[in-house]
Design a protein that fits this description.
This protein is an alpha+beta fold. Helices cover about 45% and strands about 10% of the residues. Strand 8 and strand 9 form a beta hairpin. The protein is globular, with a radius of gyration of 27 Å.
């Protein structure tokens, strides 16, 4: 009887949330009991599972030693040539011990954000064969691990392969560790055509890493530091999301199919009071239990998802990890997004990763914190560290001059890299910086660099601090950095790192970091070449700062007067994401990518086509949803109510269909995307106003679509019966 009662209760979303919270509470109590008296001071027992499902560090070392090797061999990419069978045997043992018997090469096709679950491609194969007796046995060799081949015919390629050359070739990326989830081993891989053209997001990033390493190492040696092991870029990716009730999500075809609401009247309450931002994560809703489970699953996969909190908009939340190498962090962030989407339904929720799911409240970003360091940990953007390591008080100023020049020269590419469809509605909306690419350095550093370039000062830059005294006995005076945060800047310096704030929440950020690394690598190369030719590093840095000083802006980027001033300065400003994408094929940019051996001209042209097609396809899905919602929901509701703009709604359907027909008739991907942008940002916004006017007057019992009130406010939509049952002993 009890079992049947449980089954009946689980048929409702509220019951799903109840059982999730009960399980969480029981788990917390049993964990506390288990750790209570037995746990010693500073015990790491709570963290014992970290990384158990990633083949690196002590995990890899344990299994490789059983085969006469050690984890150290993984530090040299040539293990794929010298120890492939050994590593494969160790991976197989590890897999079996963890209940896995399947493997795949895991790769990142282009134009996946917002449409492809997990944003990756994979073909999962069992690690087995039949022996001569017809009996199954394990089979996993080095050749299986290090490379693979698949049908690449249905992945976006932008003309990089012909219809009759459909092969897609996979090779293991040794910079990112193998990991395990469920019964499957995932091998991070590059994905290219038969002729080596990049069909993925990862390959250009690896090439850009090589360029930054090569030319950064050259410059550092000239500044006094001969690095051992080269240079790498590190990043930390903050991931913002929305969590909404799943039963309401099922009443929104637009959210289900496109990730954003194409219509929807504002709720009486929004984010006006800033009451959601960093408020307590309530145990009365399923959000906390959901976030805890996400962290736990990521933890086992070696993803240090350290931070969780509420964000500004109702229903909005954020995770943030620790820093790591860019390839590993990007691979991990892609997994974080997939895990978020898969865990949320277990708690009666739907996770929204799109940049702007709701109108008139903040959208979501993925702040890309970017830095550079030597293999032994010397931070190039930390003034004291790099100056000490080089023995050169001016090293930091020289490096900063190169970065400033890169931002000024290639701000168009930085804008291109964030031109995700969802960012159409987010940039410049007091939630993300505008589409004007400047950099914030803070008054303290700006003062130092200005005196450096003008020859008015000597010596190293020492970041200042100031003391805050609150005038109380209980809170003693304390120090803070001399520079405040500037959240309005697209690319602010934040102490040892820059934060690219305009990146979209649903993006694979490989192109973002490909652009940053390539642009800075070019400036490092220019500096190194000039120094090799006999020029003085300080003179080069001073001239460079003088030339590119215009891109430094420490003020309010949301201010319209400031935006006009920056535009007059000649700083890169591209308001249209479609036009920003087009810049990847400009002569300046194809020359840059070819010179740094990151992308060929043909690969740049292919990416423009793919990104424009992705934009147009996104808009077509949104337009199709809008037509269906008007025909199947809004018009019937208006007719049932006997009031509302019926004629305007009926006319709107024809308007959308005509616009879509014009898009289909356009001859190029670029032209299609231009027309799609007009449909999305002009026509559909006007039609949205008509739909929202209907929602305003139709009685709630006749409105069949979930409203913003029902979607956004988890805290005030808790099932009372569930809340009572949650506290049962």
């Amino acid at each position: 009887e009890d079992e049947q009662k449980r089954k009946n209760m689980l048929t409702s979303a509220g019951a799903v949330r109840m059982w999730a919270r009960k399980s969480l509470a029981q788990g917390m109590m049993s964990s506390a009991a288990r750790m209570g008296a037995a746990r010693g001071m500073a015990s790491m027992e709570a963290y014992e599972d970290f990384g158990k499902h990633v083949f690196s560090g002590s995990v890899a070392d344990e299994y490789l030693k059983k085969h006469g090797a050690s984890g150290d061999i993984l530090n040299d990419p040539t293990w794929t040539q010298t120890h492939a069978d050994t590593v494969a045997a160790a991976v197989l043992d590890w897999a079996v011990d963890n209940g896995a018997n399947v493997f795949c090469h895991w790769f990142q096709p282009m134009a996946a954000s917002g449409v492809r679950h997990g944003q990756t491609g994979q073909v999962q194969n069992m690690m087995m064969k039949f022996n001569s007796k017809g009996e199954p046995e394990f089979d996993f060799k080095g050749k299986d691990l290090i490379k693979g081949e698949t049908d690449g015919s249905s992945y976006p390629n932008g003309g990089l392969r012909a219809t009759h050359t459909a092969g897609g070739y996979l090779a293991i990326d040794t910079s990112s560790p193998i990991f395990l989830r469920g019964d499957t081993i995932f091998v991070p891989s590059a994905f290219v055509s038969y002729y080596g053209a990049a069909l993925d997001e990862k390959t250009p990033l690896l090439r850009a890493n090589a360029a930054l390493d090569k030319h950064g190492t050259r410059l550092l040696k000239q500044l006094g530091l001969d690095t051992n092991g080269g240079l790498r870029a590190n990043i930390g990716l903050e991931q913002e999301i929305f969590l909404v009730p799943r039963d309401a999500y099922y009443k929104r075809p637009d959210l289900q199919l496109t990730g954003r609401t194409v219509i929807g009247r504002d709720a009486p309450r929004g984010q006006e009071m800033c009451d959601h931002y960093m408020a307590p994560l309530s145990s009365a809703t399923p959000a906390l239990a959901c976030m805890q489970e996400i962290q736990d699953e990521c933890w086992k996969m070696g993803i240090p998802l350290k931070t969780r909190h509420r964000e500004v908009a109702p229903g909005q939340f954020e995770f943030a990890p620790l820093f790591g190498s860019n390839t590993t962090q990007i691979d991990q962030n892609i997994w974080v997004m997939q895990i978020i989407e898969e865990v949320a339904p277990r708690h009666g929720l739907a996770a929204l990763l799109q940049e702007k799911p709701f109108n008139d409240v903040n959208g979501s970003g993925k702040h890309n914190n970017w830095s550079m360091a030597t293999a032994d940990g010397v931070q190039l953007l930390a003034p004291n560290a790099i100056n000490e390591a080089t023995g050169n008080d001016d090293a930091f100023a020289v490096i900063m001059a190169a970065v400033v020049a890169a931002v000024d020269t290639h701000g168009d590419l930085m804008r291109m890299a964030i031109a995700s469809p969802g960012n159409d509605f987010r940039l410049g909306a007091c939630e993300a910086p505008p589409a004007i690419v400047s950099t914030y350095l803070g008054d303290d550093m700006t003062f130092y660099l200005e005196h450096f370039k003008d020859g008015k000062g000597k010596g190293a830059y020492n970041p200042g601090v100031k003391t805050l005294d609150l005038g109380t006995r209980e809170v003693l005076p304390f120090t803070v950095p001399a520079e405040d945060r500037n959240r309005t800047s697209p690319f602010p310096y934040g102490g040892a790192r820059f934060e690219f704030r305009a990146v979209g929440s649903s993006q694979n950020v490989s192109m973002v970091n490909t652009v940053l690394n390539t642009a800075v690598a070019e400036k490092f190369a220019e500096f190194a070449d000039r120094i090799d030719a006999g020029e003085d590093p300080l003179t080069i840095a001073k001239e460079t700062l003088e030339k590119h000083w215009r891109v430094i802006f420490n003020g309010d980027n949301y201010c319209e007067e400031a935006q006009a001033m920056l535009t007059e300065r000649g700083i890169w400003r591209i308001d249209s994401g479609v036009e920003a994408i087009h810049t990847i094929t400009s002569e300046k940019n194809t020359t840059l990518f070819e010179k740094m051996h990151v992308l060929t001209k043909e690969e740049c042209e292919a990416r423009e086509i793919i990104l424009h097609d992705h934009y147009t396809g996104t808009v077509e899905m949104e337009a199709g949803c809008l037509i269906d919602m008007i025909n199947q929901h809004i018009i019937p509701s208006v007719k049932s109510a006997g009031l509302g703009p019926l004629a305007d709604l009926e006319a709107a359907v024809g308007t959308i269909k005509s616009a879509m027909a014009e898009i289909h008739a356009a001859e190029s991907s670029y032209k299609k995307a231009q027309l799609a942008r007009v449909l999305r940002l002009e026509t559909m916004i006007d039609i949205r106003a008509v739909c929202d006017a209907a929602e305003e007057v139709v009685p709630a019992n006749l409105w069949t679509l979930a409203t913003y009130k029902e979607l956004l406010f988890l805290d005030s939509h808790v099932d009372a019966a569930v809340a009572e049952d949650y506290f049962e002993p």
